[in-house]
Amino acid sequence: MNNIAEVLRINEKELLAGITGTSGSWHEEFSSSSWCYVGGLDPRLTEGDLICLMSEWGEVEDVNLCRDQDTGKSKGFGFAKYEDFRSAVLAVDNGGGMNVLGRTLRVDHAKDYKAPKKKEEDLGKEDDMGGVYGPGGEGGGG
């Protein structure tokens, strides 16, 4: 059984047992981390696209789109960290199976995920949206 079907099956079982949203839920095992794994991404998607996709379920605090070290191309998966663990639960329950650019997404908890350290040359660039929108922000004017 694939991951998406398994999540649906477990969630249905929890609903019938009346333990959804309680400490008896299977999500509780992952409550120490607000990181989610997101797989099945089209390689053309960017970090900004990943934020947009995942923000449907809550405030995204950080993302890591995994890229090939040599080419810089997306590997088709990444990680998103939410401000609140409950948003991660919503993303896992609702994001898996979503079709984006003809691909089916897989969204799962990432219990022990640790974001990579920022490289020294990347420090201070976090707020620079020039690579996404060009100079002057979204409107492109100055």
Automatic annotation (TrEMBL):
Which ranges are annotated Basic and acidic residues under compositional bias? 112-128
Stretches with biased composition (Gly residues): 131-142
**Domain named RRM: which ranges?**
34-112
Q: Which GO terms describe its molecular function?
A: RNA binding
Which GO annotations describe the biological process of this protein?
A: mRNA splicing, via spliceosome
Is Flavoprotein one of the keywords UniProt gives this record? no
Pfam families annotated for this entry?
Answer: RRM_1
Could you tell me which residues belong to the region Disordered?
Answer: 112-142
Keywords in alphabetical order: RNA-binding
Any single Gene Ontology cellular-component annotation:
precatalytic spliceosome
Indicate what this protein is called per its UniProt record: RRM domain-containing protein
Ligase recorded as keyword? no
Name the Gene3D superfamilies for this protein.
3.30.70.330
- The protein's organism comes out as Triparma retinervis
Read off the SUPFAM superfamilies from this record.
Answer: RNA-binding domain, RBD
